Amino acid sequence: MKFVNMQDILLEKLGWNAFFEANFFPYKEKGFAAGRVAIEHRKAYRLYTELGELSAEAAGKMFYEACGAEDLPAVGDWVVIRPLLDEKKAVIHAVLPRKSKFSRKAAGDNTDEQIVATNVDTVFLVSSLNQDLNLRRIERYLTLAWESGATPVIVLNKTDLCDNVEECRDAVESVALGVAIHTVSAVAEEGMAELATYLQNNSTVAFLGSSGVGKSSLINKLLGEEYFKIGEIREADDRGRHITTHRELVLVPSGGLVIDTPGMRELQLWEGAEGLQEVFEDIERFAADCRFNDCQHESEPGCAVLAALEKGEISSERYGHYKKLQKELAFLHRKQDQHAQLEEKRKWKAIHRSVRKQLKQKYK
Ligand code: GDP
Ligand code: ZN
Is 125 in contact with 142 (CB distance < 8 Å)? Predict the structure, then answer.
């Protein structure tokens, strides 16, 4: 199966429908075209359009009038564009109203919203049947999903590793009344056809779930080919170097779209941050006895976690998982600080610019 030839793509295949058509109408009259955001990277965008794949930037006016990320394009968005076909580029003039939106408020003073995916029709809340199934966590994901406007569907993966599938399913049902639940196995290829039905009618599906539950495996199976091969694109960066980037909105060859953005993966981590203690209760109990409050449990003297690891009271697998999650969270915190600093810079630049403009007018 080859990657879908973008030249043959109609907007419907990209998820366009009457809702977007109605909102697009005033722009259509003025000769604008529409496109859907497949990648967002530092305010540069890659779009799917009827004219093929185009790289794009937001029009200056739109960019400077934006009050926050909320007003700028995000992956999944339908945008109003002026194509510059000779250059295979487009300028984005507006974002059409969203049918659904996954976002999170940045922590600290940074009240800006970070949008991680939009116009998702169905969100698969994926859990693994082999780890202790965490009902509280499923409840949190359900809350996130309901807030987003997308329809949640619970996916319990790895049936091949579980001998009490029905019991687990009943337990989940008790906290998720009225929500569809599917028990599947990406490895044994069980229940995949049921999941594929959610892609019908050119629907957009996204995934939420902790690291390791099998999201990538499920996406691979749904796409019918190695996702990473389908999604990869090579292009020149601003210095002309070749870099490999990844489409975050992927067209499934048999119809429908899958959104898999780093932001979506972070969302579950942030959700996990508060749950870290709960999920790793066993390890956190030892950590309370470490000599240093800020012990990283790596090589510090008097580390109770390492001692427990040595005595076999914590398995090395579980310790590895704990460290991995901690590292990812630390990385996210750093990245968020950077993001906040950049936003601050941008705001000040805009203020300086408007002050200069006022001064110029005053002393003209
Ligand atoms: P992600 O972090 O949620 O994207 O999870 P991955 O797709 O990377 O899967 C994590 C691990 O679980 C990998 O080693 C997969 O091979 C394994 N895995 C995924 N689905 C299944 C399944 O249905 N059964 C079994 N036994 N293993 C699975
Ligand atoms: Zn320690």
Answer: yes
Chain-centre distance of CA 239, in angstroms?
A: 27
| Residue closest to 159 by CA, chosen among 181, 134, 189, 193 | 189
Ligand nearest to the CA of 286: 2
pLDDT in tens, 67-90: 877 889 999 999 999 999 788 899
The torsion angles phi and psi of 90, rounded to 5 degrees, stand at -150, 155
Alpha-carbon gap, residue 55 to 249, rounded angstroms: 14
Find out whether 15 and 201 touch, Cβ atoms under 8 Å: no
Cβ atoms of 265 and 248 within 8 Å: the answer is: no
Q: How many degrees, rounded to 5, is the angle at CA 133 between CA 223 and CA 186? A: 20
> From the alpha carbon of 207, which atom of ligand 1 is closest?
3
CA of 333 to the centre of ligand 2 (A): 21
321-358 residue pLDDT tens: 788 777 766 666 666 566 666 766 776 677 667 667 76
Ligand 1 site residues, Cβ closer than 6 angstroms: 157-158, 160-161, 185-187, 209, 211-217
Rounded Cα distance, 248 and 268, in Å:
16
Residue in 183, 213, 217 to alter for ligand 1 test, most ligand atoms within 8 A of Cβ: 217
- DSSP class of residue 120 equals -
